[in-house]
Structures are given as C-alpha cells and as structure tokens.
C-alpha cells in the first residue's frame, strides 16, 4: 500500500492535472473540444505501453534509460519553471474548434516525456503492479478532472489555481533535480 501511495503521489505531481487546469480551461474557451474518455484512455495506453515496452523502444534507438531520464528531467524542470515563473517555453498548437483529446491533452500534457521518464525511473524502485495501480489511480483523477473542468472553472478562483500551479511547479523542479542526481 505504501508503494502504491508513493507511486501515485509521484505520478500525480508529474502529470499535474490540477496545474494543467488553466491550460484546459483556456483550450475550452478557444473552442477546442476535449473528450475525457478518449484523452484518458489514450494516456493510459501510452503510459502502460511505456511501462512494459519503454526499455525496448529506447533500445531500438540505441538510447540508455539514463539519457532518456536526463531528457525527461530537463523537460520536467522547464515545465516546473513555466509553472513557477509564469513564462512559456513550450507552445501548444491546436486548431480552433478541433479536438484536443489526444494532442495535447493525452500527449504530452498527461503522458508526456516527463511522465514516461518517471515511469521508467519508478521501475527501478517499485514493482510493476504498484506502478500499474498508481497509473490507474492517476487516470481516474485525470478523467474526473477533465469531466469536471467546466464546473471547476466556475468554482476555483484564479488565485487558487495560480497558487496550486506554483506549488506543483516547485515539486516538479525538485523531482527533476532528484532524477538527475539518481542517474548521474
């Protein structure tokens, strides 16, 4: 149970669906349609596939887990900086009125390089069952938040959203630093 809780909290911090609420709400305001079921299922397939086949995929490209972890740590670090400093390094590209369920919600917002790197890193410390349960718990949270995003937009003040975004940003920066320290 402790392993599942640890994995769930680590993934929750990296996925940061709460911190992504402003992005989701902004996309909806711009007319982008988000199907919570499609986004959650796609993210789940990506994350579970990477749990079991991530090392093999990296091997195909001749990449070591440490190199992928370093790349993921850098992305996590920059996402954390975006959240804390309120600046944009990454740009979202989506069509007005189009669907954002797969891109950018499922990938890279939920199951991006940071999440995938974290899943690989978790394999060194936790068993696959604990990681799978942690992934499923986080997918349920993602689904609930995506389904409730319109309601949440009305209930959560911009100040609370900004504060949560900064707190999760600092956590992401700390996770990125820890990932670098573990692999190097």
Question: What are the main properties of this structure?
Answer:
184 residues, mainly alpha, 8 helices, 78% helix
Description:
α2 (21-29) packs across α7. This protein has helices at residues 2-15, 21-29, 36-60, 65-85, 101-110, 113-123, 128-155, 158-183. It is mainly α. The two termini are 29 Å apart. It has one domain.
Q: Estimate the helix proportion, in percent.
A: over 70%
Could you give the count of β-strands? 0
Based on Cα principal axes, name the global outline: globular
Main structural class: mainly alpha
Total helical segments: 8
Radius of gyration: 16 Å
**Largest beta-sheet details:** none
Would you spell out the secondary-structure blueprint of this structure?
Blueprint: H1 2-15, H2 21-29, H3 36-60, H4 65-85, H5 101-110, H6 113-123, H7 128-155, H8 158-183
In short, what is this structure?
The chain has 184 residues and is mostly helical. The chain is built from eight helices and no strands.
């Amino acid at each position: 149970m402790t392993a599942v809780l640890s994995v769930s909290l680590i993934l929750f911090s990296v996925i940061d669906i709460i911190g992504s609420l402003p992005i989701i709400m902004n996309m909806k305001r711009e007319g982008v349609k988000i199907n919570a079921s499609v986004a959650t299922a796609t993210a789940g397939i990506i994350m579970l596939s990477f749990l079991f086949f991530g090392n093999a995929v990296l091997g195909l490209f001749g990449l070591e887990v440490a190199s992928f972890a370093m790349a993921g740590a850098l992305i996590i670090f920059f996402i954390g900086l975006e959240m804390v400093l309120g600046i944009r390094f990454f740009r979202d590209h989506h069509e007005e009125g189009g669907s954002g369920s797969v891109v950018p919600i499922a990938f890279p917002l939920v199951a991006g390089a940071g999440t995938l790197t974290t899943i690989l890193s978790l394999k060194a410390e936790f068993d696959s069952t604990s990681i799978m349960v942690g992934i499923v718990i986080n997918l349920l949270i993602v689904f609930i938040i995506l389904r409730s995003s319109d309601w949440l937009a009305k209930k959560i003040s911009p100040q609370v959203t900004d504060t949560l975004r900064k707190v999760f940003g600092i956590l992401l920066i700390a996770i990125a630093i820890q990932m670098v320290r573990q692999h190097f």
